[in-house]
Amino acid sequence: MSIFLHILLTNVLPMVIMISLGIMLQRAFKLDIKTLSKLNFYLFSPAIMFDLLYKTIISVNIIVKVLLFFAVFMVAQYIIVEVVVRLRGYQPSMKSAMRNSVLFYNSANYGIPLNQLAFAGNKDTLAIQVLIMMVQSLVPNTYGIYNVNAHKADMRMIWRTIISMPIIYVIPIAFLLRGFEVPIPQPIATPLKYLADAFIGTALITLGVQLGNMEWKIKRSLLIDVSLSGMLRLVAGPLLAWLIVSLMPFDKLTAAALIVSSAVPTSLSSVLLAVEFDNEAEFASQSVFVSTILSILTVTAVIFFLKLDI
């Protein structure tokens, strides 16, 4: 019960409060969702990624292990989702929305604090989570953009959109500056910190605004789709991660960190992509919201079965 309450109070409840504030703001003032999504894509998300990569010590050994796991995990997830979307006979827009809701998970504002809680602030597991966050930020801004646009735009336009995303430049720059021990000048470091600190709040408010912008009536067919998305993300995700780490030469701590990292709910990126490119925004918002609420139980169960010391 103490584990349940701790996760509820320190991770989930604050997020729900922020989402609720976004809902209330939208109902009161009718905010511009497109402007909010652009702020996230072009300012706050790149800033927090740079800040974490620049400041966190990560060994080459950990980088290789995490990237190997992530590649296998993403391919396996993709195969499972493809089976589901084909069985359901989705239209192209819904296919891409379902893929995004499962493949992109909340490794930043949910995964980072959860990692710190589950592993008592261990620096090695934090480095693992930062790497997961890095690739989970890179993939939505490349494959994710392609995925939501492939059925309605030509490849030249899609590539123009992808190369306009700051995140694909921020990652190598952060590694290079850290590798060569280049200090960040204070006039740049201070606004960078302000932007990084603003990411979580703005992203959650954006989700709340989108939820406040839609009708709170879910069609039976949409309810089934949201439920499928939640099951694939919250149940199949950690089970698949457990199977992969059990077949690969990972030490116990690394394996546990990777499983916990895979247990988090659907990423806000799926909502931001859906809003920015007009692709099943209602389904995307409800998938994030429902999976976040259900994760109260599923994440607690994952931590319990891993028998982590928290």
What does this structure look like?
With 310 residues, the chain is mainly alpha-helical. The chain has one domain: Na+/H+ antiporter like fold (Up-down Bundle), CATH 1.20.1530.20. The chain is 80% helix and 0% strand. It contains 14 helices and no strands. The radius of gyration is 19 Å and the shape is globular.
Query: If helices are DSSP runs of H or I spanning 4 or more residues, what is the number of helices?
Result: 14
Q: What proportion of the residues form beta strands (DSSP E)?
A: under 5%
Q: How would you classify the helix and strand content by structural class?
A: mainly alpha
| Rg calc | 19 Å
Please outline the major beta sheet.
Answer: none
Instruction: Please mark out the parts with pLDDT under 50 across 5 or more consecutive residues, or reply none.
Output: none
Instruction: Estimate the mean pLDDT confidence.
Output: 85
Please give the CATH architecture: Up-down Bundle
Could you estimate the helical fraction of the residues in percent? over 70%
How many strands? 0
Q: Please trace the helix and strand order, writing H or E for each element.
A: HHHHHHHHHHHHHH
Determine the N-to-C terminus distance.
13 Å
Q: Give the CATH class.
A: Mainly Alpha
Instruction: Compute the number of structural domains.
Output: 1
Task: Name the shape in a single word.
Answer: globular
CATH topology: Na+/H+ antiporter like fold
